Automatic annotation (TrEMBL):
<feature type="domain" description="Metallo-beta-lactamase">
    <location>
        <begin position="20"/>
        <end position="214"/>
    </location>
</feature>
<dbReference type="InterPro" id="IPR011108">
    <property type="entry name" value="RMMBL"/>
</dbReference>
<dbReference type="InterPro" id="IPR001279">
    <property type="entry name" value="Metallo-B-lactamas"/>
</dbReference>
<dbReference type="GO" id="GO:0003723">
    <property type="term" value="F:RNA binding"/>
</dbReference>
<dbReference type="Pfam" id="PF22505">
    <property type="entry name" value="RNase_J_b_CASP"/>
</dbReference>
<protein>
    <submittedName>
        <fullName>Ribonuclease J</fullName>
    </submittedName>
</protein>
<keyword id="KW-0862">Zinc</keyword>
<dbReference type="GO" id="GO:0004527">
    <property type="term" value="F:exonuclease activity"/>
</dbReference>
<keyword id="KW-0378">Hydrolase</keyword>
<dbReference type="GO" id="GO:0046872">
    <property type="term" value="F:metal ion binding"/>
</dbReference>
<keyword id="KW-0479">Metal-binding</keyword>
<keyword id="KW-0540">Nuclease</keyword>
<keyword id="KW-0269">Exonuclease</keyword>
<dbReference type="Pfam" id="PF00753">
    <property type="entry name" value="Lactamase_B"/>
</dbReference>
<keyword id="KW-0694">RNA-binding</keyword>
<dbReference type="Pfam" id="PF07521">
    <property type="entry name" value="RMMBL"/>
</dbReference>
<dbReference type="InterPro" id="IPR036866">
    <property type="entry name" value="RibonucZ/Hydroxyglut_hydro"/>
</dbReference>
Length: 460
């Protein structure tokens, strides 16, 4: 199956019909372009896009099976990574040996990627090309332009993919945040200019398509977090997604204001902060202490930021809840703040974690019961989707990055916003954009690979 010079195709291998492990292909003139290469983490009892149920004992790291494109890697022109979240970049060290193509991405994402590749002794084998926002690169028959968007991680980018027969706007993960605090912002003109040029299809994030209104700005969280930390008497532990550098800046400023010392607990937090420093995205006023010093400080002077907001085992917060973290032990009267919401499927794990914390006498504050906002999603709600469609004016909307309910709702929003046609499908469907729009259902077999005992194994 090879696209000819008149074809423009979109073929998702992962991330369409599910949230996570994004892996997308664009086809034109005999060549393929890959966008994103991410992982997911199994949730026992969860039903996958193809109806398969996840079970206990599966590999802890999973990713889309790239067999289709690995068999055609001589036609793969390159891999573009839109941003540094695990579900977009995490599978690269596992799958690159099957792909062996150059990788194009932004500076911060490249910093994260290099750290991952070094662990697999691939750092000096993988060609990484850093691209500035606004720049274009010719990658085979595809001219790809990096466009500034805002998200819950530094330097996220949308893509304008231009070919001789048509143009596709690939949103990546995004929201419309006027005060993202870290990294670049966005400009409506970026997207209205695309409409003037002409966009044949918009492949767009569906994660929060079922939520009304507009997402909360990252800057709006300071008041809620300050109130919760200022009134706490013992140690304060905040758990959030490790990639949210803006959240760390907010917490560091609050630490200074409340007379607390801030330390990071968890490998992903330490890696992300290191990458932010290397990419020039870390405020030099934000001083961190070594986590091993936390246990020696008066309890009222401690602000720790910990991984484990989703109840994952072996993370820093989980170890604190069971009393086996090497740096310190939580005591009655300490406070744990969940500056995150549950990813669907993780509710039971989080509930169990909160139960263990409360059994220690720890005060727990969640995003649901805080009086002021203490968490902001990185994805667009309905008002933001409507705005983006009115700016870009694509001929076709292709919802991705969501489960069936999210994508169906997203398609309805697109049509209500003036888009003539919405095409919804799932991994393995071939979306034909040129010459004649349409979908060929389940044109290829898709599935998952897992990493187990230092090798890839097929899971689903």
């Amino acid at each position: 199956m090879t696209p000819d010079q008149n074809d423009l195709w979109f073929l998702p291998l992962g991330g369409t019909g599910e949230i996570g492990m994004n892996l997308n292909l664009y086809g034109h003139d005999g060549r393929w372009l890959m966008v994103d290469c991410g992982v997911t983490f199994p949730r026992p009892g969860r039903i996958a896009a193809d109806g398969t149920v996840h079970h206990h004992g599966e590999p802890s790291v999973q990713m889309a099976d790239p067999a289709f494109i690995a068999d055609r890697r001589d036609r793969l022109t390159g891999l573009v990574i839109t941003h540094a979240h695990e579900d977009h970049v995490g599978a690269v060290p596992y799958l690159w040996p099957l792909l062996q193509c150059p990788i194009y991405t932004s500076r911060f994402t490249a910093e994260i990627l290099r750290r991952k590749l070094a662990e697999f002794e691939l750092l000096h084998r993988v060609p990484i090309i850093e691209v500035e926002t606004g720049q274009s690169r010719q990658i085979g028959p595809f001219s790809v332009q990096w466009l500034a968007v805002t998200h819950s991680i530094p330097d996220p980018n949308a893509l304008m993919i231009r070919t001789s027969v048509g143009n596709i706007f690939h949103s990546g993960d995004w929201k419309l945040d006027k005060q993202p605090l870290v990294g670049h912002g966005y400009s409506p003109k970026t997207f209205t200019d695309l409409a003037e040029e002409g966009v044949d299809a918009m492949v767009c994030d569906s994660t929060n398509a079922t939520l009304s209104g507009h997402s909360v700005s990252e800057a709006a969280l300071r008041a809620g977090l300050l109130k919760a930390i200022k009134t706490a008497e013992g140690r304060v532990v905040v758990t959030c997604f490790g990639s949210n550098i803006a959240r760390l800046h907010t917490l560091a400023a609050i630490a200074r204001e409340t007379g607390r010392y801030m330390g990071l607990l968890g490998r992903s937090l330490i890696n992300m902060s290191g990458a932010a420093k290397a990419a020039g995205l870390w405020d030099t006023a934000d001083q961190l202490i070594n986590s091993s010093h936390i246990g020696y400080l008066p309890r009222s002077e401690v602000l720790a930021v910990a991984t484990g907001s989703q109840g994952e085992p072996r993370t820093a917060l989980s170890r604190l809840a069971t009393g086996n973290h090497p740096d310190f032990e939580l005591e009655a009267g300490d406070t744990v703040i969940f500056s995150a919401r549950a990813i669907p499927g993780n509710e039971d794990a989080i509930k169990g974690l909160i139960g263990r914390l409360k059994a220690l006498g720890v005060i727990v504050i969640t995003a649901e019961d805080a009086g002021l906002p203490i968490h902001a999603s990185g994805h667009p709600a309905q008002e933001e989707l409507e705005l983006m469609y009115r700016w870009v004016k694509p001929a076709i909307a292709i919802p991705v990055h969501g489960e069936a309910e999210h994508m169906e709702t997203h398609g309805n929003i697109a049509r209500a916003s003036g888009v003539p046609r919405a095409m919804t499908g799932r991994n393995g469907d071939l979306f034909m954009i040129r010459p004649v729009p349409g979908i060929r259902r389940q044109i290829i077999e898709t599935g998952r690979l897992g990493w187990e005992k230092q090798e890839l194994v097929r899971v689903l």
